[in-house]
Structures are given as C-alpha cells and as structure tokens.
Design goal:
The complex is a heterodimer of chains A (about 280) and B (about 750). Chain A is of the alpha+beta class. Chain A contains twelve helices and 14 strands. Helices cover about 25% and strands about 25% of the residues of chain B. Chain B has 18 helices and 31 strands. The chains are: A alpha+beta (about 280), B alpha+beta (about 750).
Chain lengths: ~280, ~750
C-alpha cells in the first residue's frame, strides 16, 4: 500500500484529488484499528502528520481560539487550552491511554465522527466552526452541520480538516463522561455544559446517546425561561433536576454491550444536573 | 571512624531475589513465543465457526489451496490420530467435522507465506452450515428439554454432597440466588507457537506458551499419531496464563501444519481470536440457603450450583467439585445438602481460571455470611470469627482439615490494619468514582466497608497424582537445574535458584531449558508449583548435597553426617573443619533427579464424601470503596488483607501475587465480563472487555501470616489463587454497605447500583 507523506495542506489535498480511494492518516488511532481488523483496505494512504501548519494553536481574533487539526490530545490537556477552553482539556484527558493521547488528534476525532468522540460534545456546546480545505477552495462549517450521523460527516473526499475555531467564552464550562472504569474507557454517556455569562445562556451537548452529538435546545431554552442565568445566580436543586430530566428526554440512546438505554438516559440526567449546579456554585 | 561491613545479601530463600527475566520484560527485550522466528517458516491461521450451533453440510478448501502462497489447508480429515482432545474428557475435536458447537470453534487451518495470505485463504474456504438453535441456558439442559448437543450428553457432571442432619435448621434462615459473569484470564502475551518438523518428517519440535508441557505432549502426540518421543516441547516465553493455557489451543493445529507443509510453522492469535481461542471462567448461578442459630453460628447449608461449561468438557468436572466442596467457605459446618451441575451448552467452553470454581462459591457464601450477621445483629467480623474453621475441623466432605488453618488470625490481622483516611473535603477529582470522567464531586460520594474470607484447596484433587520432577546437577563448579515447570510469570525461575542456593551454599545457579527432556512438573496452576516443583528442586538439591558431603567427607576423612551447609561453607558440626562449598566441589560432579508427590487423595462418593483435597490456604480481605450512588460508579480505595502463606520465600514476589490477584478480583467485582448474547461474544476486545487501570487499582495493605505448613516441603503454601477469591465479595459487600441495596450479581454494573 503506497503511503504519500504530505508536508503541506496543498500537497495533501491534491494527493486526495488524485487518489479517489485514499485514506488520510493523522494519529492513526482509529484508522489503524480499522485496517488491522481488515474493516477497511485503503489503496493509498496520505499521511498528514508532517504538515506543521496543522499543529498550530492561534488566536485569529478576539474571542476565538483556532486549534489545528493535527494537535494531539496530550497537548489539548495542557495550557493554554486548559485555561481558555477547559472543557476541551477535560474531554481530551478522558481519551484512551497516555500513548493514545500522544498520537490521536482533534482532527482525527472529527474525521472519525463517532458519537462517542470525546471532543465533539465540547465543539457542539461551544458552537465551534470546522475549517475544511480542498484543492480549489476553503470553507467553514458549523459543527452542527458538519456531523450528520454515526461516523458520518460532510467532509468531501478531496478536503482535509485544517482547524477548528472555538469561541472563548467568559463563564464556566465542563465536560463529564461516564464509563465503566475510571480511565481509558469509551464513553457510555457524556455531556458538555457551557454557561456563557456574557450572553446569560447555558448550552448543553450530549455524547454517546444518539447517532450524532445532541444539543439540548429544548432544555436550554426551558432553563433560560425559568432563570436569568447571570453570573452568581444560584440554581436550586429542583431546577437542576428538572434540567437533567429534560436533557435526558432529548437523548436517544440504545442498548448495546457497553450499557443500556435506560442507564444512559439516567446518567445524562445526572450529568446535566450536576454540571449545571457546578456552573453556578 | 568505623567501617561497617554489610553481609552480602545472597539470593537465598526469604530474600527478594529479582526475576532473572525482569529487566528484559520491562525493557522489551524478553523474547515471548510470539517473537520467535525460524528460517524458512510459514504462518498458520485458523478458520472458526461463526455459529454457536450448526451442522457442517460441506467444506470446500479448493479455492484456498489454489491461492498463491498457500502451502496447505487442513481439516478434520487431516488429523492422523485421535480426532479429539481434552484435559479430562477427550470430547473436543481438533477440527469440527460434523457439528460446530460454539462460536469460534476451529474448522480448518491454513499455512501460507504471510499472515495476510493466510487471512485471504481462510476467506476462500467455503463451508455450508445448517444453522441450528443453540442451547444457551444451562437450565434447559438440566430439565432435559433440549436434545443432546454432543454424543456425551448435555450434563458434563452432576455431584451431590449430603452431610449430617438433613433437616437441621435454626432461627436464622437466609438465602440468595447469586450470579457470576464470565471472566476472561486476559493474559497479555497472546497464544503463540512455533512448530519445527524433524528432518525425517516423523517428528516435531513445538515451542509453545503453555502451563503444562507434558500434558500438552500427550494430547498432541495422540492427535498426531506419533510416539511421545517424536514430539518435543520447549517452553516459549509466556506472558501470563491464569488458567487459560491449560487447555490445548493452537498446539495440535500448529504441529499438523508443520508436518503437512514440512516447514516450520508459526501461529499466533490476535487479541480478538484469543477471546475465542481459550476457555474462560465459568459463569455460574448459585442458590444458597444458610440456617444459623440465634448467635449467628452456621447450622446447615443448602446449595445448588449450576456451572455453564460451554460446548466442551475442559476442566468443568474439577471446577464443579472445587465449587461445591467449598460451599461452606472457611467456616465450620456440620450439615449440608449441596447439588451441583456442570452443564454443556453452546456457549464458549469454560475451564480453568485462577480460583477454579472457588471464586464462584466464595461470592455466594460470603454474601450469605453478611446476611447471617445482619439477621443475628452482629458485625461482619463477628459472624466470621464465631464460625471460623480451625485445623482438625471436619469439612462437609467428611475430610478433616489437616492444613494449618489460621482463619481467625486472617480476620483479626486484617481488622487490625488501619482504615484509610476519610475522604478529605477537597479532593483530587481523579481519585473519585468516575475518575478522569470528572463525573462526581466530593458531596456525591458515599463510602462503604465490606468483608470477604476464603478457603482454597492447593494442588490437584480427587485421587490425581500431580507430581513434579526436577534434576539438580553440579558440574564445573556450578549448579544446573532442570525441570519442565512452566514459567508463566509466577516466578519459579526466581524461586528455583533461591532453593538451590539455600540447600547447596552455591550462588552460581543456571536453569537449563524448560522442556520435555525431563519428567513432568505438573501444571502451573492450582497454586501448586512452589509446593510441588519447589519440593522437587529442594529434593534434588538435597540428594546432590548428600553426594557432595560424601565427597568432602572422604577427601577430609570426616563422617559426612557431621557436615552441614553454613551460608556458603561446608562446616563440621562437631569439629573445626570448614571449607567453602565452591572450593569443596572442585573437580566434583554429580546429578540427581527427584520426584515430589503430594499425599494421596480420594474421589468423592455419591454423597460427596471423601478426602478429595490435598491441602488448603486461607485469606481475609477488607474492602473500602467510594461509591457514587446516583451514577453507580465505584472506586476501590483500599484493600486490607492478611493471607495464610505458610512461609514467605520471596517477599517481593509474594506481594506481587497478592496485588495482582486483588486487581483481578476487583475486575470481576466491578467490570470484567465477557458479554454473551445468543451464544455470541459481544465484546472480544480490550476496548470493551475492561480490565482495571492504575486509576481503578486500590491501595493494598497486606500482612503475610507465616505459620509454617509442615506438609509443605518448604513450609510455604501456594499463594497465587487466594488473593483473587475473597476480594471480589469484599468489594461487593462494601458497595452494598455504601448504598444499602442487595447485589446478587457480579460484575456489579452501574445500573445495578443506581437503577
């Protein structure tokens, strides 16, 4: 199997254009498993791990932090992300083992687009924007439009994900993930909550409880209708509980060998309620 | 200023000698069997059944054979000898010929120039199946409503224990139906073998990761129809076993391919294939009813055990006997009615795993002890102390407990270990239940404490003479030890030289290749190698020492009976003569072989009576857990344990066994389970079969109770299995203590706690 080692975004996308069956490899933590199990057999691989521009974290404008798709989880766990997008740092810490986190990247999580992808709820809760580059043009897509199903997204074959823009939010944010052991586990249910103190709104996104990441728009607007969501506001336990119930209603989990739909729904209601309480305590 | 001369710390018994293979394993240079290579070798691979139960209508291998790079394809028709194998009953086909009885059952194997060619060849083998309805519930087999799925029938073994007054009861009656999930041994070094055919094509040399070379040898040679002396086995580097390497997996396939292709064949399983390629711990359902007097003393136990043995016998009959004969646990009990079944189903075959039937029994009896305590209004410690067994007590099999039995001391020494500090108000979130998932805050957490105590038989039972052989040679001023004891990680390669150094006073000890060119050592299982192979090495070294004393005595005109070893010298106990052993053996050579046999045991009669076990060891565990009751997540904070070890021969190695066993028992308590649905394994990977990580492993505080066991050659009991047995019920009891809810099934899942 030929391996094309791209050193620039341009060379990577033109190689993609030239090889309709090619697969992109970055950290390889998802793709190599697929290949080793013989689930996919790419005719060509295009490595983008030597593209330096994909490994940058920049601040293109006030209020936005742009993270290159090639930044590994091990870097996302640390500063400056830890202070600027703490939920992303928390989510990254929950991914796999230290070895996996050193290899796996933000772009890879997006490219695979599993409902259990740990950084995706953070992107959904923060209304992140995905940058895509093709041989002919570049485009920006809202994360909500990017992911369309289980391991399905709208990236065209000749595009690569170059970066993700995360709004820098004044307020509180947190990511929680339930798994059946205390580390290195695929999520059974996860949630990211962002309390935007400037806007006075709360946003909640759920992982592993539906075919895509789920934004809890109904629970969010209900919450907005019953509280002011100003900084320093106290959330009563009744409101937190009700918020959790409403979030759970918006989830659509399934039974599988990892857990049951019933438990997942229950876990979402607990996580959402706890995250909200934490955000205003 | 003074100078202190520290005595050289010799690696004798009692010291923490380091593993000779330790640095290599840590640094990655150790050669596991899967790292082996031979010139001109081909790769072997196995085709397995996708169905739990089906009739094979036809097999067509022609397309696979036609593929470039394929050397040969073999099926049941290519087995020249016995078509089946098995540890106890030879009921498992080398390759399925008429029926497949579990998902993963081997149907054919190929040899080819590359693993990828093998994979493609397997895909080209055409098998037509008539899919049948699988038998997956053991109760359907017991009720007789399912027709036999094997000529030997659906009931592998049925055994009762009837003891004492069958109508005895008391004011306290407690009961429960307990369920144990299917655990995997999950060794890290996957199944692997390298078979090299002899140049005349009439013999084979197999390098393999196994637990018992000689047992493999006899099963393999029967299937190959070769005399035993034309099949040689050498132990390859083994990365863990825990029971999963007792049964044949790829051994026969690999040899058959090598003989057919007349080329060396290497086989190795992937992690996924490994889940299908070896036996697992028996899932079981155990009903127990305890009758006790008002003080909480056990009056009688009623029990019914159902072990799901899966499609083939493996060691199910012995696992069943271990389970039912440990119904009482480490407690006195005069009256019992026990009924036990080992059942054949279309689930994966189950067999040996660390704890061997006692793990299942212990979860049930320890859950019951807490129920008795609650009914009697006494503590979990008190109920165990007032019932604690002692040496001389009769067991429910009528056998007298002849082993040292410091049960009460295990309990009190464990209770004396300080409890961990309470959770502080400000805590590291990673240390809470949920760990890196950051699901909980301090205020969400409840702490619980639970107890588990166990008894475990050591060595084989029911009349089986599982002897061990060792040879000791002195040559060129050096000691050579030869044995066939499988080193699977337990540390016999560390211990054997320690024994030789202690007995002979020589430090330079070399272990010769571990292979079948010496008598059997028995299996590395049943916590038996320190006792059995240790006894054999000790015996062989003592015979050599006798010869050495005779030699020195005649050289120096001293009665050899007066000579003893003192550190590294030979000393005349009565006179002043002293010579270093190293000097004394110049020009001396000698070789002695010794077989160690344990005391004889008996089969059980129809009422389950008989002296069936060789010896026993005991342990207590106290678990402290933090639970998030709302999410059902658990963090085991501390395990305190006091274990009856007889004598510590290598402190570092001993604590390693305790900590490792505790991690394995923790796994069964809260996460490890092969999830089955309709005879199919749903999680054959380490992504979904979860093993404890560093964030799950508890702090272990251990006390070794050293009461010399007179029956053991070195005074030391086996210590491998006990650590993983009662820690599981202790953890579950601690979770119950935290949440106030009965939990009847292991592993305990989050939904069992919070829904």
């Amino acid at each position: 199997m030929p391996m094309i080692i791209a050193t620039s975004v341009e060379s990577a996308v033109s190689a993609l254009r030239d090889h309709p069956d090619a697969r992109i490899i970055q950290g390889g933590t998802d793709l190599m498993v697929e290949i080793n199990f013989n689930h996919v057999k790419p005719s060509t691989m295009i490595s983008i791990r030597d593209i330096e521009s994909l490994k940058k974290i920049t601040q293109p404008s006030n209020g936005i932090i742009r993270i290159g798709s090639g930044v590994p989880y091990s870097q996302l766990e640390q500063e400056p992300i830890l202070s600027v997008v703490p939920a992303l740092a928390q989510a990254s810490r929950t991914v796999g083992s230290p070895q996996i986190r050193a290899a796996g990247t933000l772009g890879g999580n997006l490219g695979t687009c599993s409902p259990a992808g740990d950084t995706l709820p953070v992107m959904f809760a923060l209304d992140a924007t995905v940058h895509l580059q093709s041989p002919s043009d570049a485009r920006e897509v809202a994360i909500h439009d990017f992911m369309v199903g289980v391991k399905k997204n709208i990236r065209r074959h000749d595009e690569i994900i170059t970066a993700v823009d995360f709004p820098i939010v004044r307020g509180w944010q947190g990511y929680s993930k339930v798994g059946v052991r205390n580390a290195m586990v695929i999520s059974v249910a996860s949630a990211c909550l962002v309390a935007d103190h400037n806007e006075g709104i709360v946003r909640l996104a759920l992982g592993s409880v539906g075919p895509t990441i789920i934004r809890c728009r109904e629970a969010e607007s209900w919450l907005h209708s019953v509280t002011s969501l100003q900084q320093g506001e106290k959330i009563s336990s009744d409101i937190a509980k009700e918020f959790g119930h409403r979030a759970a209603k918006e989830s659509s989990p399934i039974d599988d060998h990892r857990s049951t739909a019933e438990y997942r729904r229950h876990a979402i209601s607990v996580l959402a309620s706890r995250l909200l309480t934490k955000a205003y305590s | 200023m003074s100078t202190t001369v520290t005595a050289r710390n010799r690696d004798v018994l009692g010291n923490s000698a380091l593993r000779p293979d330790g640095a290599g394993k840590v640094s990655g240079s150790f050669e596991f069997t899967s790292d082996m290579h031979a010139d001109n070798m081909l790769w072997g691979a196995t085709l397995r059944s996708p169905h739990p139960y089906a009739r094979i209508v036809s097999i067509d291998t022609s397309a696979a054979l036609a593929l470039a790079g394929v050397s040969c394809v073999i099926t049941s028709q290519d087995v020249p000898g016995k078509p089946t194998y098995g540890l106890i009953s030879s009921d498992q086909p080398v390759f399925a010929s008429d029926f497949v009885r579990y998902v993963g059952e081997p149907v054919a194997a190929v040899a080819a120039d590359h693993p990828e060619t093998c994979r493609r060849a397997l895909a080209l083998i055409q098998i037509e199946y008539e899919v049948l309805t699988p038998l997956t519930d053991p109760e359907d087999a017991i009720s007789g409503k399912f027709s036999p799925i094997h000529p030997d029938g659906n009931i592998i073994r049925h055994q009762r224990i009837i003891r004492g007054d069958q109508s005895a009861t008391g004011p306290i009656v407690v009961e429960g139906l307990y369920e144990i999930g299917m655990q995997d041994q999950a060794f890290l070094g996957l199944e692997a073998a390298l078979a090299i055919p002899d140049s005349d094509g009439a013999g084979v040399h197999l390098h393999v990761a196994t637990q018992w070379l000689h047992e493999d040898l006899s099963q393999i040679s029967a299937c190959l129809a070769l005399p035993a002396n034309r099949v040689r086995l050498t132990l390859g580097g083994v990365g863990g076993a825990f029971g999963a390497r007792e049964d044949i997996s790829l051994q026969v396939h690999c040899c058959l391919l090598a003989l057919k292709a007349n080329r060396p064949i290497k086989m190795q399983y992937s992690r996924e294939e490994s889940f299908f390629g070896h036996v697992h711990r028996h899932p079981a359902k155990i009903f127990m009813r305890h009758h006790a007097d008002a003080s909480g003393k056990i009056v009688k136990i009623d029990a019914r055990f159902v072990f799901d043995g899966g499609a083939y016998t493996s060691t199910s009959p012995a696992v069943l006997i271990n389970g039912i004969t440990h119904t009482q646990g480490p407690y006195k009990c005069d009256n019992a009615t026990v009924d036990g079944f080992a059942i054949r189903t279309n689930n994966p075959p189950c067999g040996a795993m660390r704890g061997f039937g006692v793990v299942q029994a212990c979860f049930a009896h320890e859950s019951q002890m807490d129920k008795i305590a609650q009914a009697a209004g006494i503590s979990p410690i008190e109920v165990r102390l007032i019932n604690a067994m002692a040496t001389g007590d009769p067991l429910i099999t009528g056998q007298t407990m002849e082993s040292v039995a410091p049960v009460a001391r295990c309990i009190t020494d464990t209770a004396n270990i300080p409890l961990p500090e309470p959770l502080p108000e400000i805590v590291n979130e990673l240390a809470l239940p949920g760990g890196s998932g950051l699901t909980a805050e301090r205020s969400n957490i409840v702490r619980g404490i639970g107890w588990g105590v166990s008894m475990k038989n050591l060595m084989y039972s029911e009349g089986f003479d599982d002897f061990a052989t060792a040879r000791c040679t002195i040559r060129d001023g050096k000691v050579f030890l030869k044995f066939a004891t499988s080193e699977v990680g337990q540390g016999f390669v560390t211990l054997a030289p320690q024994i030789a150094r202690s007995v002979l006073g020589l430090d330079d000890v070399e272990i010769e290749p571990i292979d079948t060119q010496v008598g059997s050592a028995g299996s590395t299982s049943a916590s038996r190698q320190t006792w059995m192979s240790g006894g054999a090495v000790d015996g062989a070294c003592r015979l050599v020492r006798e010869q050495m004393f005779k030699h020195v005595g005649s050289m120096h005109n001293i009665d050899p009976l007066r000579l003893v070893i003192s550190d590294t010298d030979i000393v005349d106990q009565i006179g002043t003569f002293r010579i270093s052993v190293q000097d004394a053996i110049e020009g001396f050579s000698c070789s002695e072989t010794f077989e160690h046999h344990h005391r004889k045991t008996e089969e059980l009669d129809e009422n389950g009576q008989g002296n069936c076990h060789t010896a026993f060891a005991f342990v207590a565990h106290r678990a402290v857990v933090d639970v998030d009751p709302e999410l059902g997540l658990v963090k085991v904070v501390q395990i305190a344990t006091a274990q009856d070890v007889g004598r510590v021969l290598n402190p570092l190695s001993a604590i390693g066994q305790l900590e490792g066993g505790i991690a394995q028992g923790l796994g069964l308590a809260v996460m490890e389970e092969i999830v089955m649905k309709d005879g199919k394994v749903k999680n054959p990977s380490f992504t979904d079969y979860l093993l404890p990580t560093a964030l799950d492993a508890p702090n272990v505080v251990a006390v070794m109770i050293e009461e010399y066991e007179p029956q053991a050659p070195l005074g030391a009991k086996g210590i491998g299995e006990p650590p993983c047995i009662s820690v599981t019920p202790a953890i579950v009891a601690a979770i119950r203590d935290a949440i106030g809810k009965d939990l009847l099934r292991i592993p305990v899942r989050p939904q069992d706690i919070c829904l």
